[in-house]
Amino acid sequence: MSHSSPNDVIYQRPDDFDLEHERDERDVVFYQQLLRRFRPSRVLDLACGSGRVTLPLARVAAEQGFNIVGVDVEAQMLARARQKCADLDERVQHRLTLTQGDMRTWRSTEPFDLVLITCSSIAHLLTLDDRLAVWTQAFNHLLPGGRFVVDVTMPNLRVFAESLQTPPRALLELDTDSIDAQTGRRLVRYKATSFDPFEQRATIKFFYDRFDGDEHNHYLSDFESHVYFPDELRLLFVHTGFDVEAAWGDYSFRPPRSWSREIVMVGRRPASRGEDTQLERAS
Ligand SMILES: C[S@@+](CC[C@H](N)C(=O)[O-])C[C@H]1O[C@@H](n2cnc3c(N)ncnc32)[C@H](O)[C@@H]1O
Prior knowledge:
The protein has helices spanning about 15-20, 25-40, 55-65, 75-85, 90-95, 130-140, 155-165, 230-240, and strands at about 40-45, 65-70, 95-100, 110-115, 140-155, 170-180, 185-195, 200-210, 215-225, 245-250, 260-270. By secondary structure, it is α/β, with parallel strands linked by helices. The model is unreliable at about 1-5 and about 275-283 (pLDDT under 50). The protein binds S-adenosylmethionine (SAM). The site of S-adenosylmethionine has 18 residues, from loops.
């Protein structure tokens, strides 16, 4: 079993992670809508990170009366999530539990009716064994009728093809430029991608320039990621016992198209005959 790469330096800098994602609201709104649509009773958010998506979902949990558990392997990301959670209304705080764990092995004794892995976090699963372990754990955590939802970025074949030139090259793209409106802190990110077609592995070097007052910090965060193709996702669901209930091509519930930028897939654990498909609603 391989570990989440220690090279993911950005996860040791959760403030920078939040800043680089500050404009990523589409997925947050989408998952809030999804929870209102599915009306779950107990939600598991694996690889919840700094709580970027989890905390807004906890607000929906407080509104609708369900509980949510966030799990992440990186202590510093979780610490940031806890810090942000402490600023929330107590009703919201009570709905959320944050805990450290590896999504490949973490086990809960209590079942869920919705498991989420957001923001392409399944790309961290570099081996087939790891992917099967996570899909199987998700299945086992779910009650019959429960759902497992994942999202990934659609493979960008243009970028991958570029990296396969002879001699190989990785073009440097200016990727993100974010400014914290309160502190004026600015984070500029560049990335260079190489692709291994046999392993379906993208090796991405993220270069960061962080400007904080007079301070300028430059650092590199290596990122090894598995590249999923849509039918492979479908196969992972089917192979581990799920029915594929829905696939969308973006965070607006639109069907997948040849130009779609995302893949969001929903697997459903089949409901056994006569079995209740919902947890008792938490009071
Ligand atoms: C791209 S971030 C996404 C965080 C969060 N889901 C969001 O949407 O902002 C990926 C997260 O996956 C976590 N991660 C990577 N490998 C993991 C594993 N094996 N188990 C649990 N978390 C993992 C990292 O620590 C990081 O917080």
